[in-house]
Structures are given as structure tokens and as C-alpha cells.
Amino acid sequence: MNTASISQLKANPASVISQADDYPVAVESRSKVRAYLIGKQLYEKLLDLVEDKLDRSAVAGTDFHKGKNFEAVAEDLGI
């Protein structure tokens, strides 16, 4: 994992941000990780994964034999 100090982040934020394009950067203060910096594409991928997990969970928790149809589930999911 890439790391950067808060001082490095303050001195050259563009450089640290560019490191976060492909993989998270641990931002350290006094040798302790205080935050993680992630790039836009990775953030969007994480959001997609969370959304997919929630959607699968909603579908898995639906008992279609009890008469709730797919359209109702889709409406619950906002799709």
C-alpha cells in the first residue's frame, strides 16, 4: 500500500492524489494511519459493489412464491 505523510499531502497534494488513482494511499500522522485517500474510479467501483450487494440481498430476501412480483421488488430497489 502506498503511504504519504500529512506533510507530503500538504506540500504536494496533486502528487499524492495521483498515487491514489490505482490504489488507496494511507495518510499518516506521527507514524499512525489517520485516513485513506482513494481515487475517483476506485470510489465509484466501491459504490457499485455496495449497491450490487444491497440489490442481491433484497432479491434474495424476497419470497416470490408469496406473490410479490419482480416489478414490486424493482420498485423497492428504485430501478
Tell me what the structure shows:
With 79 residues, the chain is α+β, with helices and mostly antiparallel strands. It contains four helices and three strands, in the order βααββαα. Strands 1-2-3 form a three-stranded mixed β-sheet. β2 and β3 form a beta hairpin.
Overall mean confidence score, pLDDT: 88
Please provide the count of β strands.
3
* Strand composition percent: 15-25%
Structural class: alpha+beta
Largest sheet: 3 strands, mixed
General shape: rod-shaped
Helix content: 40-55%
The total count of helices amounts to: 4
* Radius of gyration, whole Å: 20 Å
Amino-to-carboxy terminus distance: 36 Å
Strand order of the largest sheet: 1-2-3
Write the H/E string, N to C: EHHEEHH
Instruction: List unreliable stretches of 5+ residues.
Output: none
What's the short version?
With 79 residues, the protein is α+β, with helices and mostly antiparallel strands.
What keyword list fits this structure?
alpha+beta, 79 residues, three-stranded mixed beta sheet, 4 helices
Write the layout of secondary structure elements.
Elements: E1 2-5, H1 6-11, H2 13-19, E2 25-29, E3 32-37, H3 40-60, H4 70-77
